[in-house]
Design brief:
Blueprint (H helix, E strand, L loop, with lengths): L5 E4 L3 H12 L4 E4 L11 E4 L1 H9 L3 H7 L1 E3 L1 E6 L4 E6 L3 H4 L3 E5 H14 L3 E3 L4 E7 L2 E6 L4 E4 L1 E4 L6 H6 L7 E13 L13 E7 L2 E9 L2 E9 L2 H9 L3 H11 L7 H7 L4 E7 L7 E2 L2 E3 L14 H19 L4 H29 L5 H27 L8
Parallel strand pairs: 1-2, 1-12, 2-8, 5-14, 12-19
Antiparallel strand pairs: 3-7, 4-7, 5-6, 9-10, 10-11, 13-16, 13-17, 14-15, 15-16, 18-19
Helix pairs in contact: 1-5, 1-10, 2-10, 10-11
The structure holds flavin-adenine dinucleotide.
The site of flavin-adenine dinucleotide has 31 residues, from helix 1, strand 3 and helix 10.
């Protein structure tokens, strides 16, 4: 059994999805997660149609759509509320699945619940600290002094991956993208004038105080977030030295001229989530010996892309499919096939995310005027077409 078992380090988006597909393929698998127990983490995020396709193959998409909110358009606005551009984000009829905004916790719980229902062992309190490979076996060693043997180890342990540091100690560290992020979630009842808000829109606001976004993660709940440019040497103290009141006051000051509901969203938020944006460009390769990286461990896109989780889902499904079709004994060939398919797509996303980050930078009044005109032109010309390569990607499990 040990020389057939796949060990997954990390029980997040990629790890649980991979475990579900391996189970579907009849391959023995166990997940080892650092947190002591299943935990509520993060705000809400968007799952793009390509990510929803993966969840559909697991039979989870209907429940996810029901628990979240379908996003049918990106509305680009300036601070005053004027439209810069609008694009449809791909309806179900075009791509088979819609874009869905959902609380990260709800989605994570759905994956975890499905794993438990399938009898998959998800072991908590297992922080990977070392990997030993000997003969036909790989051993994962955990901080609590325990260890486990398996045929392969998949590092699905996120952007600060221990697996990556263990197999590629010289790989680049996560790079600061230049933004401090903050956000919150409110009940729609807390917002005045809610009939002016379109529940199918994800609104992206570009103004001189910084970027601000908002949208519904379920019909009665609204998520907002903002990205502010902060120098790297200040960003950590920025996060630790802020009380909720201080964050609220600073943002109210900054966004004083922004249209409704921006100020109200900030004013009514009681608890502010804070993040520092990091990214990891796709490494030159993701595997070494019996170990391979998937999801953020191998390529963390900045949050601008709105595709990080969907990339983790695609990685998981594609790797599991290769194991199903070729058998895990052929792991060397499988790892190469995985990289050959996934690397070009990830590199393309990385380039697209770079452009998205530069749009979020503050430019001064004249720069902003030019930026708005450029955005209106390019989004009008390429916006919807530009999403096609992202959204139409589909892995066929049975072929
Ligand atoms: C603010 C923000 C907004 C975002 N918005 C979007 C969005 O709109 N759309 C989108 O698609 N993506 C978005 N993302 C990105 C998305 O969250 C990630 O790309 C996705 O979660 C990656 O999945 P993963 O499984 O690779 O990593 P994670 O989901 O981070 O899971 C990694 C898991 O590994 C565990 N772990 C870590 N170290 C160890 C260890 N040593 N041993 C064992 N376990 C370990 C962690 O505890 C965690 O559970 C956003 C991210 C952020 C921060």
């Amino acid at each position: 059994m040990e020389n057939e078992k796949v060990i997954i380090a990390g029980g997040g988006m990629a790890g649980l999805t991979l475990a579900l597909f391996l189970k579907k393929a009849g391959i023995p698998v166990a997940v080892y997660e650092a947190y002591p127990e299943f935990k509520n983490s993060g705000l809400s995020f968007t799952i793009a149609p390509n990510g929803m396709q993966v969840l559909a193959e697991l039979g989870l998409s209907t429940a996810i759509i029901k628990s979240g909110n379908i996003i049918s358009a990106f509305e680009f606005k300036n601070a005053g509320g004027g439209r810069i551009a609008r694009i449809r984000t791909g309806h179900g009829e075009q791509y088979g699945q819609p874009s869905v905004m959902i609380s990260r916790y709800t989605l994570h719980k759905a994956l975890y619940g499905a794993a438990l229902a399938q009898g998959i062992a998800v072991n908590y309190g297992k922080k990977l600290i070392a990997i030993n490979e000997r003969g036909e076996m790989v051993t994962a060693l955990f901080e609590d002094g325990t260890q486990v043997n398996g045929a392969l180890l998949i590092g699905a342990d996120g952007i600060h991956s221990a697996t990556r540091q263990l197999i590629f100690p010289d790989a680049p560290k996560p790079a600061y993208v230049g933004f401090y992020g903050t956000g919150g979630i409110l009940d729609i009842k807390d917002i005045n004038n809610d009939e002016t808000l379109n529940k199918g829109d994800l609104t992206l606001v570009y103004g001189n105080a910084g970027f601000f976004g908002y949208g519904f993660d379920k019909p009665d709940e609204i998520l907002w977030w903002s990205s502010l440019e902060v120098p790297e040497n200040e960003v950590k103290s920025f996060v630790t030295n802020n009380t909720d009141d201080q964050i609220r006051n600073r943002l109210l000051d900054l966004f004083a001229d922004y249209h409704h509901p921006v100020k109200e969203l900030v004013a009514k938020t009681k608890q502010f989530a804070q993040t520092i944006s990091y990214q990891i460009a796709p490494l030159d390769g993701w595997h070494k010996g019996r170990v391979i990286l998937i999801g953020d461990a191998g390529h963390a896109l900045s949050t601008t892309s709105g595709q990080g989780a969907s990339m983790a889902f695609e990685d998981a499904m594609f790797l599991a499919k290769l194991f199903k079709d070729n058998g895990i004994a052929n792991y060397q060939q499988i790892f190469k096939l995985f990289e050959a398919e996934r690397m070009p797509r990830l590199k393309k996303f990385f380039e697209a995310a770079k452009r998205g980050n530069s749009d979020k930078k503050v430019t001064g009044t004249f720069g902003l005027f030019i930026k708005e005109k450029m955005m209106a032109f390019f989004i009008g010309l390429f916006g919807e077409k530009g999403l096609k390569w992202q959204y139409s990607y589909k892995i066929n499990w049975n072929k």
